[in-house]
Every structure is written in C-alpha cells, then in structure tokens.
Fold these 3 entries.
Entry 1:
Amino acid sequence: MSIDIETARRVAKLARIKVEDDHLPDLAQEFNNILGFIEQLNEVDVEGVEPMTSVTPMRLKRRTDEVTDGGMQDRILANAPDAREGFFAVPKVVE
C-alpha cells in the first residue's frame, strides 16, 4: 500500500493537524516508511513464541477472582463526614 499526497492531506485533516502543502510530500513519505516497517514486522515468524511481560523472566502474581466487600467498611466510613446504618449519608437533592 502506498500513501499519496491526497491521502496524507486527509489523514492530517482527520487528525486535526495543520500541515502546509509543501510539507505534504514529506508526510506522505513518512507514512510510507511506517507502513514499510509494519510490513517488515509482519514477515517475522512468531509461531511458538510466548508473549513476554518483561525482558527478565518473572511470574505474574495470581489470585482467585472473587467478589468481596473488602472487609474494610468501618475503616472507610470512618472518613465520611456523615455515615448512617453502614452507608454514606448525603444531603437530599430531590424533593
């Protein structure tokens, strides 16, 4: 795929970037360079390569996915200016 000057102009407009007409050929060439690099990356065989989380090997911490109330209701409500019956109390806004 090749990006021409009109496509570069349209991309600049969609990105809300003001590009002078004399800079459009350079922008189109830069887009073409980026697309060429992406095509190079697509040629790499990654079959059987495990995804990495870091350059150093490490295991992610895992825990069971359980819904809890956090067990801190009293500590959280201690910060509230007004709490009643285990909930935050707020001024009435609807008559």
Entry 2:
Amino acid sequence: MAKKKTMKEMSFLDHLEELRWVLIRSTIAILIGGCVAYYYSDFIFDSIIFGPKDGNFVTYRFFCELAQKYDLDQSFCMTELPFELQNRTMEGQFAMLIWTSITVGFILAFPFILWELWKFISPALYEKEKRNARYFIFVSSLLFFLGVMFGYFVITPLSINFLANLTISKFVVNSIDIQSYIGLVKSTSLSTGLVFELPIVIYFLSRLGIVTPNFLRTYRKYSYVIILIIAAIVTPPDVISQMIVTIPLVILYELSIFISKFVTKKEELKNEA
C-alpha cells in the first residue's frame, strides 16, 4: 500500500482523532447488535447456545448416521449428553446474558466494523485499491461468517461431546458451570471465525513484505501437524471425522500460500516496471 502523492497528509493527532471515531462508531454498532440479541435472547440461548447440549443436535445426527453407515465409532448416537449446567453465582445468569448479547452484537456488526477500518486506511490507498472496498468487505465478512458457522456446527459440538464423555473416575459427576459452557461456545465460534480471516491477513502481510510464499511453504508441515493434533483431540477416533475438521483448515492454509504468491509476484512485476 502506498500513499497517494496528492493526498493531504494528516498529523499524528488527526490520525488519533479519526481512529477514535472509528472505535466509537464500531462500538455503537456492536451495542445496537447487542440490543437486537438481547431482544431475541430466549431464542439465542435455547436454540443456539444450548443447541449443542441436545443429543438431537444436527451435528450429532450427522455423525451418528455416518458412523452407522460405515460401521465407525458411534459415540455420537445418543439422546442426551451426560452433564448438567448450573449457575453458582448470584449475578451469573445476568452477566452471561449481557456478555453473550455483546458477543452476538459483535458478530452482527462485523461487516460494518470492517467498513470502518477500510475507511480509516483508505487515504493511504490508490484509487484502484479504493474501488476494491466492496470486494474486501464481502470476502472478509463471508470468511468470518463461514468460520463462525464451522466453529459452531463442527468444532463446538465435537469438543462438547469429547469433554462431556471424558471421565477420570465413576465417582466424578459432571455439573458444568454455565460460564464455562457458554465460554467454550463463544470462544470456539469467534476464534474459528477469526482464523478463517487468515487469507485476508496473509494478503496484507504479503503486501507489506512481512510474509512470503517460501515462508509459508517452509512451515507448512508444522502447520499440518498442529491441525491434525487439533482434529484428533476434538473428534472421535475415526479417520472420516478427523478429515471433516482437517480438510477446511488445510484448504485455508493452502489458499493463503496461493494469495501470498499472487501478491508477491504482482509486487515484483510492479517494481520491475
């Protein structure tokens, strides 16, 4: 990214003031989304947050049918998970209601936050790069929402099923604190959504010359090992379940290499010209 020569330069304090308003507008958008989530809190908690606790959740049914068809591990064929949720603090449920609403508000406001960030950096871009704003917002939002859905429908139920059925002794009963359960659902979904932004991050890092395709290829095998370890932990001991988790993450990494190669080659041609 290069500055336009005709662009009027802003002082450091001007940049801070502009950034302050970006943060203020983004915060307002999150609060508005949080109010919407608060209004529909019954549906969000009963059908979405506590959905993976139900043995008839869509992911469990899918893996159960898959296991029965191919004679695999049938740990997902169940009617209910062997644990109950409990609230052990006076303000626990109220805190969970507020913070869950804010989290959902952030997810809903994510495209607007991207738009605000794009407007903040746009003065340092060429006109051609500015015209790509709609593509940046669309692709980044799409990757984020796909990541959130993948985290919620795949990683979260697999993790809950694994942890709920893990026992160290028959004398231990799982009575899970509500903050722990909701924290797992939120952190897994959000973190996966952010992980799916990897191609966008690689694009900008490649533009800045911080990341190169050779760097990504060099550490490819280490990345694959980490991905396989994660898949082995959160899935039952069969190859198909592990591949369902592994393949999207591998595709994401390979896509990042392709993007870095494309950007690096484009920058080299520009410098030669």
Entry 3:
Amino acid sequence: MGYRVVDTDAVAPEPDRPCECRKLSDPGGLDEAAINRFRAEPGEQLPLAYHYHETQQEAFYVMDGTLAVETPGDTYEITADDLFVVDSESPQRAYNREDADGPVTVLAIGAPPADADAVPYDPNDE
C-alpha cells in the first residue's frame, strides 16, 4: 500500500504556459493518469493550442469561476462544481473569457497520460 499528500501550492508552475499550470502527476507518483491544476486569468487559455488527443480522454473539473471550452460545434460554459469530459480525437480549446469577472481554477485529468499525443487543430481547415 502507498499513500501520498501533495501540497499543490508547493509544486512550481510550468514555464512558458498561457496560464498558471501545476503538473501534479509526478509529485503524486501517478503513472496511469495525468493531473494538472490550471488557474487562468480573464483572456488566458489553458492549453498551449487548440488541439485533440489521439488516445487520451480528458476531464475538466471547475473548482471556481467559469471555464469556456470551444469545440468545432459549440462553445460550452462550465461553472464551478461541474465536470466537462472530452473524448479522444475530439478537438477543444479551454479558456477564461476576456470579459470574465475573475480567474477560473480547473483540475484537469487525462488518461492515459499522453502529453506527446496532442495534435494541433485548426478550425479553419474544416
């Protein structure tokens, strides 16, 4: 058996990201899932680009604020305590609207962990 407590504020934010991103998988000793905590100010997006994953499913749990998720067919508004799930091969871009009242904090979970399988998506190619 094994147990760990991770002080998420002690995990350094990733450099060169469009918003604050704290990667929690390694500090938590996880190798079957990716867990990241994002905090985006108004106008900031979570991912580096509009993208999809070939094999990974993602789930975004909104801890506070409202998360906007752009997809090819719609833009969703996810509020605090709601979960937004993205199947593999489904393009999305998550962000905090420019006119938001404040930041949005999101716990993002992906399985299997697959940073390398993110594929850029251009909605203008449709």
